[in-house]
From TrEMBL:
InterPro entries: DUF2817 (IPR021259). It comes from Blepharisma stoltei. This is DUF2817 domain-containing protein. It comes from the Eukaryota.
Length: 381
């Protein structure tokens, strides 16, 4: 698998010109650059034979470094279409969104240039949410757990031993219970802008542009859309989980894949979660049905992934002028030493393992997921 945004993008776009159907390419640029000074963009392909009214929307790289698997899967599907082993039905079209967070992919982070997790940021009414969270007991409890663990999750300087921190995390698991602790680590906190898992206080440009693009690409008279947002990291290594945040998507996803692998996480449900699967569904502009799930392929135990995110964040925060450089506010920056740092390499390995076995089986799982979803869309009443 390619582990650079540019290589992923070139490969994906080159393949798209060989697809034997109607292919409409488009993109939007973000006001940021990569280490070579190139502007960063998100690309879209709209592929169909006739005039379908059912669409599969397949997005990658909402979390920057997770692009490497997501892009490989998108390209894998394109290859299957090109060699004829995958047939697109006449009544279904495919829309692929490549690199929702290109800044994170280019600079090897999960979050965007403002340290924001885009998958906690799709909130249509921020003032209302922030006001409500002030008195929400669940949010207040998660906030106090987050702050209690601050010494471990947001250390000011590099950590040389993860042994103590690993033990401390095990202690927090015991103290608060798995569910509450995990929620406090993942809920997209909105009070510490330099801390890990920050969800932001207003909607980021990546999501505004994405929303507009989806309105433009999917006709309003569409009968049905299924959105798959591709992720890696959570869950048992090499195993897939389908994360859903609303009842309609839960029912649809379970009828395609069975109930066993579907994870309905009520903690992130509805519009408060800020996930892009729920945000795009909430703001849909089509007359028909819309179901959505995140395809999550597990890579490593959660404490290991979490520590890799934290260690990279410490390194990033010590080099946060990279943000000014990529916003073109600064003319020089030592990109090489920033990107080659050990914490970056560990983070990439954590979200796109180099193991051939993992890569091969994960691509098969992803391809089966796409294949089954398209068959379901085509056959559904
Ligand atoms: Zn993710």
């Amino acid at each position: 698998m390619n582990r650079s945004l540019q290589k992923c993008r070139d490969f994906f776009l080159n393949l798209s010109s060989r697809v034997p159907h109607r292919v409409q390419k488009s993109n939007y640029e973000l006001p940021y650059i990569d280490f070579t000074g190139r502007p960063l963009s998100t690309d879209f392909l709209k592929i169909h034979k006739g005039s379908p009214k059912r669409w599969l929307l397949l997005t990658s790289g909402t979390h920057g470094v997770e692009l490497f698997y997501g892009s490989a899967l998108q390209s894998h599907v394109l290859k299957k279409i090109i060699d004829g082993s995958f047939q697109i039905p006449d009544n279904v079209g495919i829309i692929m969104g490549h690199a929702i967070n290109p800044w994170g992919a280019a600079w090897l982070r999960r979050v965007n240039v403002n340290n924001i997790d885009l998958n906690r940021n799709f909130i249509t009414d921020f003032p209302e949410l922030l006001e409500r969270q002030k008195t929400d007991p669940r949010y207040k409890e998660a906030k106090s757990i987050y702050l209690d663990t601050d010494e471990i999750i947001n250390p000011g300087s590099p950590r040389f031993s993860n042994l103590y921190d690993g033990a401390k995390i095990a202690y927090y698991f015991w103290k608060y219970g798995r569910e509450k602790f995990t929620y406090a680590m993942m809920f997209g906190q909105r009070f510490k802008s330099r801390g890990v898992q920050y969800g932001g206080k207003s909607m980021e440009i990546e999501l505004k542009l994405l929303q507009e693009k989806i309105y433009e690409l999917i006709p309003t008279d569409s009968e049905a859309v299924i959105h798959i947002d591709i992720h890696t990291g959570l869950g048992d290594p090499g195993q897939e989980t389908f994360i859903v945040t609303d009842e309609e998507s839960k029912t649809t996803t379970a009828s395609i894949f069975g109930e066993k692998r579907v994870d309905f996480n009520s903690l992130f449900s509805g519009k408060d979660g800020g996930l892009i699967i729920s945000g795009l569904k909430e703001t849909k502009r089509i007359d028909g049905k819309w179901a959505a799930f995140a395809l999550e392929i597990g890579t490593a135990p959660i404490n290991k992934t979490f520590l890799s995110i934290r260690d990279e964040a410490v390194w990033h925060n010590a080099n946060s002028i990279v943000e000014n450089f990529s916003k073109k506010e600064l003319s020089a920056f030592n990109s090489e030493s920033y990107l080659n740092h050990k914490t970056k390499q560990v983070l990439v390995e954590m979200f796109c393992p180099s193991s051939e076995e993992w890569q091969k089986s994960s691509l098969n799982i992803g391809y089966d997921t796409v294949n089954h979803t398209i068959k379901y869309l085509s056959a559904s009443k």
